[in-house]
Every structure is written in C-alpha cells, then in structure tokens.
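Action item from last week, closing it out:
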Amino acid sequence: METPKRSKIWFTSGGVECAAWHYAGTNGACVVMAGGAGVTKEPGTDTFAARFHADGFSVLAFDHRHFGESGGTPRQVMRVREQLADWDAAVGCAKSLPEVDPKRVAAWGFSSAGGHVLRVGAGGKVAAVVAQTPFVDGLVSGPNSLRHESVGVVLRFPFLALADLLRGLFRRPPLVVPLAGRRGEVAMLTTPDALDGERALNPDGRYPEWRQTIAARSVMPMFTYRPGRAARRIRVPLLVVVAEQDRSVLAKPAVDLAGHVAGAILVQVPGGHYAPFLEQHEAVVEAELAFLHDHVGDR
C-alpha cells in the first residue's frame, strides 16, 4: 500500500516529549499503537497502521520515551513503569484528537507492548485491546529464552547488566546490546525466530535510523514482568493473536490468558514470533480489522 498521509504530533509523558504519527481517520475511532522492546513506531506499526487507516480508523503510533524520536535520557533504556505511563499519556492524546470519539479508542501492541496493552485494558481507559504475539509472563518466557543461549553468555550477561547500571549511576552512556542475535552472541534475544525481526520489521533496510539495540540494564527486569496477571481485570473486548511456533514469548501463556478473560477472542496462526508481519500478515490484519470494526468502528 502507498504510505498514507500522516502528521507528526507530540504529547508529554512524565515531563518528557513523546513523538507520534497521527493518521486522521474518518469513522471517529482511533487505534493507539506502539512496537515491542526497542522497536520504534515506524518499523513496529507502519504496515498495520496503513491498513487500519485505509479502513477509516484514526491511528496514533508513538515512540516510548528514550527511543526513536521521543525525548528522554539516557537513550535505549526501557523501564516498564515509564512505558506504561507513556501509554496512558498516548491514550489521553488520542482522545483529544478533533476527529476522535473519546469513547472509541483501542490499544494495539505486539511483543512487550502486547503485554503493556493488557495492563492498559485492565485500567479501563480504552474501549478495546489488540494484543499481538504478546509478552504475557516473564517467568515463563525468560527461562525459555535462556535455553537458546550459550552457557558462557548466560553467565556473563548479569555482569554486563551490572556494569551498565553502574554507568547509569555515573551518568555515562549505556552499554547496549543488539535486540537479536545468534546463539553464542550477546543480545536481548537469541531464540530461533528472533532474527526474523530484521526481514519482518526492516525489509531491505527500510528504516536506517532505527537503532536495533537496547541497554543491557533493561533486559533482566523483563524476567519478572508479568502483565498477564492484569488480564482478569479486563472488562473491554480483547483480541489475542498467537503465533503457534513462537519461540520468543511462547504461545501457551497467551492462549491460557485468552481462556481466562470473559469474551476474549483468540486467533492462532502458524509461524514464529513475527509471523503476523510476514507470511500471516493478511490473515492477521483482516482479523484485527474485523475486531476493531465490531467493537470501536462504525458498524
């Protein structure tokens, strides 16, 4: 599809200016979107945002603070509490857009942001939630990720994270690691499908400005992040998209979560973590559009 017309807007979260793309729609509903850990708004949302906008939805696709065009120092540092605050601010910004009905705002996220939107939905500030290959339970996916790493890297990484924390205390630039790597390399993820992220999110190097790194200090706290625990409090329509061969966040926690939320819709597709951006894109985007039209659109 051709790139739709969009404009850059800014909103404030925790005293930091966050950047977002605003696609003005025609049906009064808005989808607030963001990418997973270390993934900025363009590679993380462009392909889905274009389709949502073509069907009449407004879209607000934003960068979490410390990443992309949003402010905040140090750079490439992910803190869950800050990112959840960014989501609240982004939803508030979406509700203030002139063409948007504030009662018809949905949240869409994948991977770690797919976990965040579960917390957003539990807070009751949006009318619907789309959680795509969501990070549901760090106590499950964390140990799984370690099984795909060499013993040497597993033993070395805590010291790297500690060194990065100490650098932070002295206001020195973070020690960053790649978002994905092969087994035996130091990276946030070395699961078999982690390297699919490049061709899924950055085909042909489309986004050269995207820094595919994250601060080492940001990785280990994800082992204790369990956004799925908030799911039982969700009282708005929920769509959970699961990739059956997901080796990065695993399929089972998301499948189990969908079974515990009244009225949740579960869509399962074959493939790894990035299947919704690759071979299963059309099936997933059609399912998400149908869900959005049914619950916040103008049908």
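Closing note: The longest helix spans residues 151-169.
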